[in-house]
Structure formats: C-alpha cells, structure tokens
C-alpha cells in the first residue's frame, strides 16, 4: 500500500467515529426538540452535515485509491448512514490498515505465504 492510499484510509477512519457521534447527538437533539424547549438541532445538524460531507469525500477518495470492490465500498457507505455505523467503519478500517502494514513488512522481508 502506498502512502497516498494509507493516508486516504486514515482520513476516512479519523472522520468515521466523530461522524457517528454527531449522528447520535443529532438524533438526541431531535427528540429533545419535540419533548422539551431545548432546540439543538440547528447546531448539531450543521456539525453533522459537515462531518457527513467529509466522510463521503474521504470515502470516495479511499475507494478510488484502495481499489475496493463495489461490495466493500457499498458497505462503508451504508455504515455512514447508520447511527452507529461509523464506529464499525473505524474498527474495520483500523484492521485493514494493520493488515496492510503486516503484509508490507512481510513483502519487504521476503516472507512468502506458504
């Protein structure tokens, strides 16, 4: 994996958890808006909107650079629209990055899978 691909995956990973948190907080604010006098939806809506747009941009870049199959790319996109999906995306991206580092070290050291 080259440095640009690793950077694209890292950016996506770093935005996925905050995007999930903002989604959950937006849902909480929506409930509070309808049940109390508190209205945090305009602020949380803007924050979540920015984070969601960043997630989609970083997702598209990671898909392009990592050459994911359509199924993998679709999974990461679907995870972005689920309230806790960003946490699962972050965990999978971390595992994918660790596997890529291990494979890169093995190639560099000349270790061949038997």
TrEMBL record:
Keyword Transcription found: no
Topology in the lipid bilayer is annotated as: Multi-pass membrane protein
Q: Which residues does the UniProt record annotate as the domain DUF3817?
A: 9-95
Provide the alphabetized UniProt keywords: Cell membrane, Membrane, Transmembrane, Transmembrane helix
Q: Where in the cell is it found?
A: Cell membrane
Residues spanning the membrane: 39-60, 72-89
Source superkingdom: Bacteria
Primary site of residence: membrane
Q: What name does UniProt use for this protein?
A: DUF3817 domain-containing protein
Q: Which organism is it from?
A: Streptomyces similanensis
